[in-house]
Amino acid sequence: MKVGIFGTGNVGRTMAERFLADENEVMIGTRNVRNTLEREDRDNPGHLSYQEWQKKHPQIRLGTFAETAAFGDIVVLATLGNATQHAIDMAGVKNFASKIVIDMTNPLDFSNGIPPRFTGTLGNSLGEQIQKLLPEAKVVKAFNSVSVQIVVNPKREEGDPVMFIAGDDESAKQTVSEIAKKWGWKDLVDFGSITESYFLEAFAMMWIHYAFKNNSWTHAFKFLRK
Amino acid sequence: MKVGIFGTGNVGRTMAERFLADENEVMIGTRNVRNTLEREDRDNPGHLSYQEWQKKHPQIRLGTFAETAAFGDIVVLATLGNATQHAIDMAGVKNFASKIVIDMTNPLDFSNGIPPRFTGTLGNSLGEQIQKLLPEAKVVKAFNSVSVQIVVNPKREEGDPVMFIAGDDESAKQTVSEIAKKWGWKDLVDFGSITESYFLEAFAMMWIHYAFKNNSWTHAFKFLRK
User: Fold this and answer.
1) In degrees rounded to 5, what are phi and psi of residue B64?
2) How many Cβ atoms sit within 10 Å of the Cβ of residue B191?
3) B117 to chain A: which residues are within 8 Å by CB?
4) In 3D, which of B82, B14, B81 has the Cα closest to residue B44?
5) Which of A109, A216, B22, B162 could form a disulfide with A117 if both were Cys (CB 3.0 to 4.6 A apart)?
């Protein structure tokens, strides 16, 4: 499969590595390819600069947002929530037609520092906004409620965490579920249509808020049914 | 201890039975005592009418909201979210001074049927609203994220669920934690000040939404730390 990933940060890179390890072709999308390739800054002391990371992963291509959307059978949105719409605009709506779009974004406002504020709105979740922007794409809200490290390696010492997904297209959800199962997810809950994204985004805030408050990045929720 | 409980529905009654079983004195508060005592309607086929229930539990007193707030060392808010402020107004703010107030409410709008809509607002959660209304009370947001049946009997076949609590007063949170432990809660997470109530209310929506969509009332979340 061809996978296009929007976002050159930790989330996008980790997803890219994982999809590549699964023998997919992977392209990362960015606003300006040359600027990104020249980036030597590290967003976090433990991370590589984009330049360093790209050198480690020569098989992963870097393209514009438009090239990346056109490239992917699956397009993963791993941008900051408030940057997603702009990235889609730059990519061009037509390049998403009939694609599966995995929306990992969350409505966060970092303008007052951390922990970020939640800016989700009932009836206007990011998942819904993206599906409206991309009416011919099959948007699946997924992988937004834990860190990307857990997304690609969900096995926890204390049990199997739950992943909620939502979207209007059943076959797209099925494809995303199969990807998740390959990565080790054992408890996937189809939460319904893309309008349910709001609840997935609200749920994510508990994870995110706890994470920033406690500097914990390894926690997750197991869903007890009885 | 004396426990006053606002709310004559399933939540209030179940909490009343549980506090009584723990050898507390319990009073339930209502708008109009005579009307409530005469109520023969059942809100649910499986439930007793208030009149039937009261006859089964003669030790549990029924009072006005004002009497109930004045009575309790602890006051439990188990009203519908959008009825809470009015109940507090009727009770009189002075009757809550120095009391521990356990806020179990959630910002739900049932006007369009079920599942209810979430009406929570960041920076203006119900927990915060109630603490502002009752500046001399020690409000603890707790027990809002699962059904009352799980609140009073948290043991699940599949593991120990998590309960998040929030509030400004450490000793009040300690008291609520001790009550919860007595009921079987093994994983209590102090989420911080009452301003964190928003996240507890958002978290509750995942439980509530799943419940109404799947007619499931036995699910809960276990918090995996690693």
Assistant:
1) -70, 170
2) 25
3) 122
4) B14
5) A109
